[in-house]
Design goal:
2 copies of one chain form a homodimer. By secondary structure, chain A is of the alpha/beta class. Helix content of chain A is 29%, strand content 27%. Chain A is built from 7 helices and 13 strands.
């Protein structure tokens, strides 16, 4: 008797941005597995909670798979969308290198509103045309590769959504990324820092590439970088809107 | 007395993937503006429906802004997420070039589950690491720019989510894109065609870049292209899972 494993994203924070599919899975679950602060955001569910520290993704994935294999109804909880720099990849990595019986489990990934989509919506439509999504973390890839991807994306005219822009161990990374981008793009290109979007502590800051500073980001920040085509609409007494025009080139 | 304008995404199709925020806005609306088939997906709302053909985005945006300026509670309806190749950019474009009073309207973009996130979830976690999102349409940008962006993204090791892969007027485009990508990537790189995800007529097809053919896509298809790092997990009697490993380079 095989159990079930749902890998889901809670969205950016506000429960009004969480899908009914996700809510139903949380209600059905016997076990919730995830990073502690994410589990704290799940109210009501009567499941056993298996919280863990950040950075223990593969151990967390294996625990979830073992529980599902025992016949439990397991939910792996991510923030945002589970498939974007979150737990879905870790679970499939654990499956590929783990117990062959895990391939027979009923595994379902449930999509969510990702941090980048929530941030873009609060700012206007800065991701309304071609864009790239990039993690700035060099925990699992060489920093040179991060820089190469940044340069390639900016040179080709993609807007950028940067995940993991801030690392306590390497606080210089985001400034290094801005410095590289200033070699490719005009100083006037819009840059937005979207922190804790949709939560009580939400902070949105809009600046330009010339003025952007790494210290404006923390671990809850999504950094959006426009293109030469990105437009800024000023407003009286309100944050400007940013958008990517539909026509490019 | 100024009205309100919400620009929202219904998600990929299944109402279980639509956020409560969006449902509440649809219930509150006095007027719904959108592409006819998307409005048909909205049940229950008692609003006046202003359906239009596809391709009339700016006219549709202006109508919505005029109605909001008259004090109506207007909702502009997109599929997926409103900010990804959808109506949000068109509305801000109309605002920038339209009646200055439109800048004082209460405009809110409400994010949704985008087609790419829904497609990725059904396939595993193919967008679990760095990726680029690109419209293959050359209605509003030169085809040479599409090709340049495709090449830059593939060379830098980004996975790709391709919107608008099929055009009735230019059915050769997707095959031309695959031909270009085969110059940069191995024939074994996984390619997935995700059509009408989460709807009754959903079709998922997984192949390789060497075998991929443009005729496998129609106007409802999202094409996902992996990288040299993308892994395929075979399963007995079931579709394989695709995922992007967390470690790259």
């Amino acid at each position: 008797m095989s159990g079930r494993l749902a890998i889901l994203g809670l969205g950016p924070g506000d429960p009004a941005l969480r899908t009914p599919q996700v809510d139903a899975a949380l209600q059905r679950a016997s076990d919730l597995v995830g990073y502690g602060p994410y589990l704290d955001r799940v109210g009501g569910a009567r499941a056993v909670r298996h919280g863990s520290d950040n950075g223990e993704e593969i151990e967390r994935a294996r625990l979830a798979l073992r529980l599902a294999h025992e016949g439990r109804a397991v939910v792996v909880v991510s923030s945002g969308d589970a498939g974007v720099f979150a737990m879905a990849s870790a679970v499939f990595e654990a499956i590929e290198h783990g117990d062959p019986a895990w391939r027979d489990l009923d595994v379902e990934v449930m999509p969510g509103v990702s941090a980048m989509l929530a941030a873009a919506a609060r700012l206007g439509a800065p991701l309304g045309h071609d864009f790239c999504v990039l993690s700035l973390s060099d925990n699992l890839k060489p920093w040179e590769l991060v820089l190469r991807r940044l340069r390639a994306a900016a040179q080709a005219g993609f807007a950028l959504a940067l995940y993991n822009p801030h690392s306590r161990a390497r606080p210089w990374q985001l400034d290094a990324a801005f410095a590289l981008l200033r070699e490719v793009l005009s100083d006037t290109v819009p840059v937005a820092f979207a922190t804790a979007v949709s939560r009580a502590e939400e902070v949105l800051a809009i600046t330009t590439l010339g003025e952007a500073r790494g210290a404006q980001a923390d671990m809850r920040t999504l950094v959006l970088i426009g293109t030469e085509a990105t437009r800024t609409i000023p407003r009286d007494g309100a944050r400007p809107w940013l958008y990517a025009p539909r026509s490019q080139g």
